[in-house]
Write a structure and sequence with these properties.
CHAT domain-containing protein, TPR-like_helical_dom_sf, alpha/beta, 932 residues, 9% strand, globular, 36 helices, TPR_rpt, CHAT_dom, Rossmann fold, 56% helix
């Protein structure tokens, strides 16, 4: 990756003080060199977002004026090798330097060399060696007198490196503490730039921990500090680093503003290198915004072979506009940057953008890239660039009848073999694993299965050797596909199972795999789960009553159910881009067997050619299993049509027919079992577009499901808050009656809140009083079991587009946790955690129109709020009907202390149904989470 040339040429001892200030400040400023290369595969780890305040850019003689020229040259060599991506050789240099310093009893410089060694070992994925190096470095510093400025500079560097390692190992709280200590040390010595870098690192840790507001607060402080600095290249680099940090956190618009300021400053200071770096980051931000605006269409087949070519997408005008901007940014870079790798990265990124625009590059453009690749100095970045280029060539090949020589299989294999040879020469096992794996994938695409398996197994062995789980799962998945294609189903299932188990261990790392993980998740993570479920549930077919039942072993059924639960969790992790969802070590069968009212749980998953249903009945060790064979695109179209009919007030026969069809898929095969077990409550763990359909509105030909069963939804029983507290009714109710921020008024909200207040004791916040600050203050001061928010809101598959409207702003889903839970404690301190909200009610909210995964946002709100149960609406109903339903719901709850929330909702919906028969008025209200 291209990095600013921070190395000075002056080495004379007489400039000690000046170099000290400049070089150490620059060390502090090496916050993040950003997201430089967007992989065509979006999985090659050339996209690195190490928001770090320390990189090995320093002159060792600054710290030890008596160091020999040879040692200084050794440290310089290590830094140069590190910056050029030759990490194994860099590690060797730093190791040798540390040993020499040890022999000279030079503890400070030994600690510095070990600091750089740890950074380098982290790049190689050698976690044990990295941990050993940084621990030894810290021990040396703790044993030394840290009174001098030099010593404290080194301490701050080492603390930053320790934080990097801790975050990589999933120890976000420890990383935060290390970075806070680093920032404190920088402040003590008056190094404002180093402090800024440590603050950005802290924001990364808070983001990983799910503390959105703290993340944003710190980044706002960083912005303030940077803007107060005089104009300089340091400031330009800092603004770019802040922009990249904001991009990584999902705040694309703010990211663009910071990057534009960085670019303007670089242009003002006439720095082509900093200008090209800013352009690269701006291109990536525009690319990310474009992908946020595209609509992924359902396809007739899953992405079984992960070639990751952009297909099946519908472009919006906004998306096209952003893609064109990204293309223009990338196009400017080669003529400005003197770093060959930066120019290649820009050209490769532009190739990816062209695929989204449906445009073909010219043969001359492709040949120019290949020529540039051949001239790159061997490095990890050069290896990844070749793999990236191959991915683009494979995608371009699919879209053309005529294939120029550059797209010939022989040329593609040669590119990959060159990448492999360079990785071996560099002794970079991670890069070597990628090269081998993608050779295997290319031969898989060419149906040369034996050769593909050979390369894949070699890649997997290397990934396992260096404990690189983030790439091992890809080769485990690839091996599973290859074994399946060769007819070895048993070993294929084993390989897929291992891949899913690896993904489960990767929860923290998965979130940081790619800046565009929201899109890539669907190509590179989700299919592993779905394909494994499909394999586990394969068997001989036997037709029974329009649906199909299959003889599948109980072992396979239980594993398939667990995989569906794991997929639900992975989707939420991906949605939030953090892993702060608490998983209960729940025995799912025990939950169902002990539930009152008597409960059955329905698990669904939509596969390429069918929809699979697994049912857990109470007090039964055997799971039931039903399958309807129907193409995925037909299932999706039916669900979309039903959703539209449910939202149209005057539909009748066509709506009932669609509703009955979905009922036949999900419920009819299980009716006899439900009746035999006297089931009264149904819990649905729904998949994909099924989440957008209110199960209460399913129709059996005579009556709606809600007329017979109470209904609840769950993102997975592993996420269920199990403890049942004594019921106490006291509510914080808030709402808007007036138009705010372009949203229509809700005049009946006042009536709704008055009716609630007449039923249960309530504290009201209406209109101007309804702010996020007031909500937080009230929830903090009084433990309200019920929080009722009557306001506009939207649920979306995009986390940034999921929010609840207040008088002065939108509460976005990432803020919800901190406003409602009131438990975001200072890390490292032990505070009393207040009891959970028993029930969160969101009336007048709705799922985003046209978003097939919009209800994922509702599940996200339910989980993120910390409430045990969440009642919300899938679409916006006239607020008069809402007022009636909510009033009846609370009336039912207060009349019978033993009544479950799901049954209270059922009775309230039935009450409205008798007056307003159409599901439009009563069906959208769904209960998510604990139904008791």
């Amino acid at each position: 990756m291209a990095r600013p040339n921070f190395l000075g040429t002056a080495r004379k001892k007489g400039v000690f003080h000046k170099l000290q200030i400049i070089l150490l400040a620059l060390l502090g400023l090496a916050f993040s060199f950003g997201v430089h290369l967007l992989s065509a595969a979006s999985v090659v780890p050339v996209i690195e977002i190490p928001i770090r305040a320390s990189q090995p850019i320093s002159n060792a003689s600054v710290f030890h004026t008596q160091a020999s020229e040879n040692i200084e040259q050794l440290m310089q060599k290590g830094r140069t090798l590190y910056q050029s991506g030759q990490f194994a050789s860099a590690a060797q240099s730093f190791q040798q330097a540390a040993q020499v310093y040890q022999s000279q009893n030079d503890a400070l410089n030994q600690a510095l060399a070990l600091n750089f060694l740890s950074l380098t070992e982290q790049k190689l994925g050698h976690w044990n060696q990295a941990s050993e190096a940084i621990t030894t470095s810290l021990n040396l510093l703790n044993q030394s007198k840290l009174s001098t400025t030099n010593a404290k500079h080194i301490l701050a560097l080492v603390l930053n490196t320790q934080g990097n390692l801790q975050l990589a190992l999933g120890q976000a709280e420890n990383a935060l503490q290390s970075w806070q200590k680093a920032a404190k040390t920088y402040r003590e010595i008056g190094d404002s730039v180093g402090n800024i870098g440590s603050l950005i690192n802290q924001a990364t840790a808070f983001q990983s921990l799910g503390f959105y507001r703290r993340t944003m607060k710190i980044l706002e402080q960083v912005e303030k500090n940077l803007l107060s600095m005089p104009n300089s290249l340091l400031k330009a680099a800092g603004l770019r680093s802040l922009g990249n940090a904001l991009l990584a956190s999902g705040n694309i618009e703010k990211s663009q503003k910071m990057l534009e300021q960085s670019l303007a400053l670089a242009q003002q200071l006439r720095s082509p290198q900093e200008e090209s770096a800013a352009l690269l980051s701006l291109g990536n931000a525009a690319f990310a915004r474009g992908k946020r605006n595209i609509i992924q269409e359902s396809t007739t087949e899953d992405n079984f072979l992960p070639s990751r070519c952009e297909h099946g997408i519908v472009q919006t005008e906004d998306a096209k506009s952003y893609f064109k901007k990204a293309s223009n940014y990338y196009h400017e870079i080669p003529e400005k940057s003197s770093y060959p790798i930066t120019a290649v990265q820009a050209q490769l990124n532009r190739l990816s953008v062209l695929q989204f625009l449906g445009q073909q590059p010219t043969s001359a453009e492709l040949e120019s890239i290949q020529s540039a690749l051949s001239n790159l100095t061997p490095s990890r970045a050069a290896v990844y660039a070749r793999i990236n280029f191959v991915q683009s060539l494979v995608c371009l090949e699919k879209g053309k009848d005529f294939k120029p020589p550059i797209q010939n299989p022989e040329n593609i294999v040669q590119l990959l073999n060159t990448a492999l040879a360079q990785a071996k020469d560099l002794k970079d096992q991670r890069a070597e694993s990628y090269s081998l794996g993608y050779l295997g994938q290319f031969y898989e695409l060419k149906n040369q299965l034996s050769k593909a398996q050979q390369y894949t197994e070699s890649a997997l062995n290397l990934a396992q050797l260096i404990n690189a789980a983030d790439i091992a799962y890809q080769w485990e998945w690839q091996l599973g596909r290859l074994l399946l294609a060769q007819g070895d189903s048993e070993r294929a299932v084993a390989a897929y199972t291992t891949a899913v188990e690896t993904l489960q261990t990767l929860r923290v790392d998965l979130v940081a795999l790619n800046p565009d993980i929201q899109f890539d998740f669907r190509d590179e993570v989700e299919p592993v789960y779905r394909q494994l479920v499909g394999l586990l549930l394969q068997s001989e077919r036997a037709s029974i009553d329009k649906a199909l039942t299959k003889q599948v072993s109980q072992k396979n059924l239980k594993q398939a159910r667990n995989v569906i639960e794991a997929l639900q969790l992975a989707e939420l992790d991906n949605f939030f881009q953090d892993t702060c969802i608490t998983i209960q070590p729940t025995q799912i069968d025990e939950v169902v067997d002990n539930a009152n009212p008597v409960t059955a749980v329905f698990y669904s998953i939509i596969l390429t050619d069918r929809i699979e249903i697994i049912v857990k009945l109470p007090h039964s060790q055997e799971l039931r299993h039903y399958t309807t064979y129907k193409p995925k695109v037909e299932i999706e179209n039916t669900l979309e049509a039903l959703r539209q009919k449910l939202e149209q007030r005057y539909t009748f026969r066509d709506r009932e027919e669609l509703s009955q069809e979905v009922y036949n898929w999900l419920i009819r095969p299980a009716i006899a079992d439900l009746e035999q077990n006297n089931v009264k409550n149904l819990v649905f763990v729904m998949d994909g577009s099924l989440r957008n359909i209110p199960m209460a509105a399913l129709y059996d030909g005579k009556q709606y499901l809600i007329e017979k069963y109470s209904v609840a939804l769950s993102p997975g029983l592993q996420l269920l808050a199990l403890k049942q507290k004594p019921r106490r009714f006291e509510a914080l109710v808030a709402g808007l009656t007036e138009s705010r921020l372009g949203f229509s008024p809700l005049p009946n909200v006042a009536t709704e809140l008055q009716q609630i207040e007449s039923i249960i004791p309530s504290k009201q916040l209406i209109n101007q009083a309804f702010t996020d600050t007031n909500i937080k203050q009230q929830v903090s001061s009084v433990s309200f079991p019920v929080v009722h928010l009557a306001t506009h809101g939207k649920f979306s598959s995009e986390v940034e587009d999921t929010y609840i409207l207040t008088w002065n702003d939108k509460i976005k889903i990432k803020q919800l946790r901190e406003i409602l839970q009131t438990r975001e404690q200072v890390i490292g301190r032990s505070n009393r955690v207040p009891p959970s909200i028993e029930l969160l009610v969101l009336s007048a909210c709705e799922t985003a129109t046209g978003d097939k995964r919009a209800a994922l946002g509702l599940a996200g709100v339910a989980v993120r709020s910390g409430a045990r149960s969440t009642l919300a609406s899938l679409w916006q109903v006239d607020d008069k009907s809402t007022s009636v339903l909510m009033s009846e719901f609370y009336q039912q709850l207060t009349q019978d202390a033993n009544l479950s929330k799901a049954e209270a909702l059922r009775r309230a919906q039935e009450f409205v149904l008798k007056d307003k028969g159409h599901p439009f008025y009563w069906a959208p209200y769904v209960l998510v989470g604990n139904w008791l």
